[in-house]
Amino acid sequence: MTAADVTWLDPDTVQLRQPKASHWEAPFLFLLFGRDRAILFDTGATSDERVFALRGAVDGAIETWLRKHPARFARPYELVVAHTHAHGDHIAGDALLAARPGTTVVGTTPAEVIAFFGFPSWPDAVVPFDLGGRVIDVIGAPGHEPSAVVYYDRATRILFTGDTVCPGNLYVRDRAQFVQTIDRLIRFRDATKPRIKTVLGAHVEMSTTPGVDYPPGTVDQPDEAPLALPPSILDEVRAALDVTGKHGAPKKRVVRDRFILVDDQR
Predict the structure, then answer these.
(1) pLDDT above 90 (res 232)
(2) For residue 246, what pLDDT band results from cuts at 50, 70 and 90?
(3) Which one of 17, 69, 172, 181 is at 20 to 30 Å from 142 when CA atoms are compared?
(4) In whole angstroms, what separates CA 39 from the centre of its chain?
(5) What would you measure as the largest C-alpha separation in the chain, in angstroms?
(6) What are the backbone angles phi and psi of residue 113, rounded to the nearest 5°?
(7) Which residues contact 100 (CB under 8 A, 6 or more apart)?
(8) CB atoms within 10 A of CB 63
(9) Is the dihedral of CA 24, 219, 58, 202 positive or negative?
(10) Rounded CA separation 252/243 (Å)
(11) Rounded mean pLDDT of 241-265?
(12) Alpha carbon of 57 to those of 43, 115, 173, 262: distances in Å?
């Protein structure tokens, strides 16, 4: 059994990483606690607890938090399992949590995401989701995947961007939607006060050498870049989307120091 790499970013925020030994994608997951409920962003790339002990890691973190807050939490303490998008390396572990008491697993189609969070218009609206004394802003973010969303935690001022923005290959499946998403995130960033502190995506694929990534399938990444990116990274991604090649068409691959933009329209 492979345990998650667990890091408490603060007393109410947990970063979990699926180890490379269990799946080369090694996605990052995030667990945020509020007074009334917690929310988990993504469930990883495997559906076998013996391969990646997701349920054990989540239960352990929740038990640790509840022991420290015996008078603050609602009973029963609810867990919402949501996703940054619906690709398999982010939803495979849903089955490990679906039968957990007090747990709601959000569906993975655009319609299910829209219905659960109550988007009045998709993807333009920004919807607040209250954990109890801790509000998460849910932002529609299709372009990499149709049901993709980005989450902003007002408490930590972290923007959780999944595969839309991360130190790795940014795969653009729908260019028009992706451009609109980055524009939407820039508008949100610029209007948010106090300002966003950092951007955390779901993968690290870049090395510490600017512009050099690890090929897909790489298990050993001894010199990987840090996960955290500054909010200004959104401007860099937006500029990369405007880079053109021959005949004025968008370039298929734009290499930047901290990410690689890949035109992957299908």
Answers:
(1) yes
(2) confident
(3) 17
(4) 12
(5) 64
(6) -65, -45
(7) 55, 58, 59, 79
(8) 10
(9) negative
(10) 9
(11) 93
(12) 11, 29, 32, 33
CB-CB contact of 202 with 27 (8 Å): yes
Q: How far apart are CA 239 and CA 52, in angstroms?
A: 38
Integer Cα distance of 197 and 195 in angstroms: 6
What are the sequence ranges of the domains in the chain? 5-263
pLDDT of residue 195: 96
Task: For residue 96, give both structure tokens.
Answer: 């490990």
CATH fold group of domain 5-263: Metallo-beta-lactamase; Chain A (3.60.15)
Asked whether the whole model's pTM tops 0.90, one would answer yes
The amino acid at 104? T
d(C-alpha 266, C-alpha 264), whole Å:
6
DSSP class of residue 71 equals T
Alpha helices in 9-53 (DSSP H): none
CA distance 199 to 114: 23
CA distances from 104 to 39, 40, 150, 158 (A): 10, 10, 19, 23
Q: What angle do CA 155, 113, 82 make, to 5 degrees?
A: 50
**Given pLDDT bands bounded at 50, 70 and 90, which one contains residue 73?**
low
Q: Distance (Å, rounded) from C-alpha 183 to C-alpha 150? A: 13
129, two tokens: 């989701």
Distance CA 234, CA 178 (A): 12
Decide if 148 contacts 170 (C-beta within 8 A).
no
